[in-house]
Amino acid sequence: MDSHLISEFRSIVSDRGLVTAAEQLRTYECDGLTLFRVVPELVLLPASGEEIQAVVKICHRERIPFVARGSGTGLSGGALPVKGGVVIGVSRMNRILEIDVPNARVVVEPGVTNAAITAAVSAHGYFYAPDPSSQVVCTVAGNVAENSGGAHCFKYGVTTTYILGLEVVLSDGSLVHLGSKTMDCPGYDLVGSFVGSEGTFGIVTRITLRIIKKPECTQTLMAAFNSSSEAGSAVSRIIASGMFPAAMEIMDRLALEAAEAAVHANYPNCQALLLVELDGSAREVELLMDQVGPICTLCGAWELKLAKSEAERVAVWKGRKAAFAAVGRISPNYLVQDGVIPRTALPRVLGEIDRLSVEAGLRVANVFHAGDGNLHPLVLYDRRIAGQEQRAMTLAEDILRLCVEAGGSITGEHGIGEEKKQFMPIMFSAADLEAMQRLRSAFDPYELCNPSKMFPGTDTNFQRPIAYEPHPIEKAGLAQRY
Amino acid sequence: MNERQDVLDRAWTDLEAVVGREYVWPASASDAIDGLQPTRIIVPGTAQEIAQVLQYCSSAGLGVIPRGGGTQIGLGNRPQKADLILSTERLNRVIEHAWGDMTVIVEAGCTVEHVQRTVGEHGQRLAADPRWPEKCTVGGLLATAESGTLRIRYGAVRDLVLGVEVALPDGSLIKAGGKVVKNVAGYDLTKLMIGSLGTLGVITRAVFRLHPLPVATASYSASLSSAGEAVRLVLAILDSYLVYTGLQVRADRADHISVDVRVEGIPESLQDQFEKLSKIAAGCTFAEAVRDPWKARQELFATPGSSLICKCSVLPSQIASLCDVVFRHAKSAEVAATLVAQATGVAEVRLDAAPPPSLAEALKNLRAEVNRLDGTLVVQQCPVAIKEALDVWGTVKDAAPLMKQIKDKFDPARMLNPGRFVGAI
User: Fold this and answer.
1) What string of H, E and C letters represents the secondary structure of chain B?
2) Domain boundaries in chain B?
3) Which CATH architecture has domain B94-212?
4) Domains in chain A, please, with CATH?
5) What is the reported pLDDT for A461?
6) Any CB–CB contact under 8 A between A478 and chain B?
């Protein structure tokens, strides 16, 4: 990059906010999806909304594409840099600006982590509901970009439900306010449009979100089954009985082995484990939990275990949330998929995945949000064995096609990013995609914000590494993958 | 003038070819929008036909007013053009109720009551309670994004929709979202369409997520003599473990205020909830509501006449200030006022007066005060004369150019509800 430009950027973000050294730039070559890598020209770490605005104005003037980045935990390559572009990281902007407990509103800078919000309001008896597994490190801005979900969104909804207002910098450097602190801001639902746009509409500089009151009582039941299908039928029966659990999760044998090895959650030794979490008024939770057990038993559960203390409950969830990373212990490489199916299709689709897995000669571990039909099949493979990676990718694609055929979606919470853009036509017609492009061109007519992502037919010139390389941060032992 | 007449005459013949002769009706005086008289009502039978009608009108330069049950047809600024009304009434089927998945796919012209009846057979409900559910259609519900009293627990209408099918002005029929409860593939055009007042496209079909019907429901009301007390009580309930599904403040005088609470669940827990409520209420007494207090939003609209109804959105803690402002201005303008506020901070206010000028004056003052609270005021129903004097949506700040861009991309000919939405989009 031209040295005059670099000094211009430096004059805005200072030395602290500028990354130019080749080995440091490599830290930003990928996000949580390490399959694709592009080394950015430059990484900028602005300290304020004004700095972001100033930086984007230069990018606009010079027509330099830019990619916004939070903590880089995304699983679909949304924060993958683009060739010849810069990365604008928001991690230095990590202040909570306002906590308004009576109105249950919090205003934050984009680099605040998801878990930091709950930590800040927990003493008042509140929490921030969307809970992606990476919540300890991922940023709220990243959650906004990806419309992140989590285990509890069956009852509580995903990120978009909780975002009321956004201050954003558009690709021409203009600052606009979408939504407001109050409900029903007149006009188009620009907040709803922006959330989940995967960094292609602009960069978020400030977020107003809603927190909610913690329930009086929460109980988590573990039920051990001989198959995921049995566990799946228990899920359907629980729903049919009129209950509305806070979360329902299934882990199969492979995923359990991995999670147990990693966290010692003390899970029953079984083929499939169902977690059912009920919350609400103490009396109601107790009465309803009395019904959940027998339903599970009726569907084939041979062991029921209620997490009694808060500590036990935390351990149960820690195991579940660490499951992806833990799979790394039982396989050198794996692909995480994120397809969604109508809940009633669970037994059939799980059977099909088993069949595909046998055909491909690859193991598939299943961890999924059963309540909302969001599957997370983990395709295990060894890159060192010739042809396995290609087979794994084909298998992952076949699973996604299966989800769409069952009436579902290719992604429930990870996003399209770089990874699944070629699969968009499986779900959407040319006219559907054209309508999305219209919205994009209203926000970013210059195609500078995270260009080449989300839509098929756009090339990023990414490099595929020849041998597996962990992320530099992983190598340094500072983080593990979720 | 004659040329225009020719275009229209040709249009009716051409549109008859699209939807069938028997579905192009002459419009009557009761179909007028803010005094603007459309010539025809077009009643397509399929989503494809709606898309074709839009494409035709786009190229012929005709102004189209989409209409469902007509319950909110008065919402919006005076249209700049209204050549025809596009009615969705023939698209009135529930396509699929996947009760095991707790989702339902319905056509836009289906009434909310019809949806509720269908899903109710399996003990489920759509957790939305708009005014006049027997007339309000799904399409209208989404176009206006009207959220009712259940919102405090189940979210706004936007949170209940999983996907939509939309006919666009260029004649394409697109699908956004899907039918699964979690889906982040592509842009969320569903959210863009919800609340866009039919200015970007016409919603032809929607997929909703459903909730279980509660086994038991109870509503309690308490009377208070000041808005300050009422709001203190509301905030205490919001900060409690009570699992309410409705929480509302009603006022028809500054010193005559009710707080309504609805709890739902299994019968065994209702008593427990009532005890909790009584403990929170401390000083005042809650009693089982005698009349259904949740109809209050609808009752605001019950008696027509020289009235004005507006939606004020403030923070929950500001509801008391809003009450003060409303009754102060009502008093000085000598108009009667009624307020129904949900604990979300969204309040609906009715002002009554004989001479419209004092209404317009009261409205202007009220909006200024609400804006001072960083809130917004949208006029939902008012005499046409008032619409000529002000923008019913208020002013949209720095996001206005973006909204205009979006409108231009989806409806470049400006034929859908032209001029009716924010900033005369």
Assistant:
1) CHHHHHHHHHHHHHHHHHHCHHHEEECCHHHCECCECCCEEECCCCHHHHHHHHHHHHHHCCCEEEECCCCCCCCCCCCCCCCEEEECCCCCCEEEEECCCCEEEEECCCEHHHHHHHHHCCCEECCCCCCCCCCCEHHHHHHHCCCCCCHHHHCCHHHHEEEEEEECCCCCEEEEECCCCCCCCCCCHHHHHCCCCCCCCEEEEEEEECEECCCEEEEEEEEECCHHHHHHHHHHHHCCCCCEEEEEEEEEECCEEEEEEEEEECHHHHHHHHHHHHHHHCCCCCEECCCCHHHHHHHCCCCCCCEEEEEEECCHHHHHHHHHHHHHHHHHCCCEEEEEEECCCEEEEEEECCCHHHHHHHHHHHHHHHHHCCCEEEEEECCHHHHHHCCCCCCCCCCHHHHHHHHHHHCCCCCECCCCCHHHC
2) 2-89, 94-212, 216-293, 300-389
3) 2-Layer Sandwich (3.30)
4) 3-91+442-471 (3.30.43.10), 96-213 (3.30.465.10), 217-325 (3.30.70.2190), 331-415 (3.30.70.2740)
5) 47
6) no
pTM for the model stands at: 0.95
Longest dimension (CA), chain A: 72
CATH architecture for residues B2-89: 2-Layer Sandwich (3.30)
* Nearest-CA distance B211 → chain A (Å): 8
Q: Is B185 on the interface with A (CB under 8 A)?
A: yes
Cα–Cα nearest to B314, from B386, B367, B243, B254: B367
Residue in A243, A409, A432 closest to B183 by CB: A409
CATH architecture label of B300-389: 2-Layer Sandwich (3.30)
Nearest to A150 by CA among A128, A123, A117, A119: A128
Where does the pLDDT of residue A479 fall: very low under 50, low under 70, confident under 90, or very high at 90 and above?
Answer: low
Residue A184 and residue B145: Cβ atoms within 8 Å? yes
Rounded to a whole number, what is the distance in Å from the CA of B213 to chain A's nearest CA? 7
Q: Report the percent of chain A where pLDDT is more than 70.
A: 95
Is A205 in CB contact (< 8 Å) with chain B? no
Angle between helices B227-238 and B319-332 (to 10 degrees): 160
Q: What is the ipTM of this complex?
A: 0.97
Report whether pLDDT(A464) > 80: no
Residue of B102, B276, B393 lying closest to A239 (CB–CB)? B102
Evaluate whether B216-293 and B300-389 have a shared fold: yes
Pick from A176, A213, A244: which is nearest to B399 by CB? Answer: A176
- Is A439 close to B187, i.e. CB distance below 8 A? yes
Question: Which residues does chain A have within 8 Å of residue B376's beta carbon, measured at their own beta carbons?
Answer: 180, 182, 184-186
Whether residues B178 and A407 touch (CB distance < 8 A) is answered with yes
Q: State the smallest CA–CA distance between residue B357 and chain A in angstroms.
A: 25
CB contact under 8 A, B399 and A243: no
User: For A112-171, how does the pLDDT look when each residue is reduced to its tens digit (9 = 90+)?
Assistant: 999 999 999 999 999 999 999 899 999 999 999 999 998 888 899 999 999 999 999 999
Partners of residue B105 in chain A, C-beta under 8 Å: none
Q: B-contacting residues of A 308-347, CB under 8 Å?
A: 340-344
CA distance A223 to chain B (A): 21
Does the domain spanning B216-293 belong to CATH 3.50.50.60?
Answer: no
Question: Pick from B123, B155, B195: which is nearest to A157 by CB?
Answer: B155
Residues 76-115 of B with CB under 8 A from A: 98-103
Mutation test of the interface with chain A: which of B77, B144, B183, choosing the one with the most A Cβ atoms within 10 A? B183
Q: What token pair was written down for A430?
A: 């040319």
What separation in angstroms does the CA of B339 have from each of A475, B311, B325?
A: 61, 10, 11
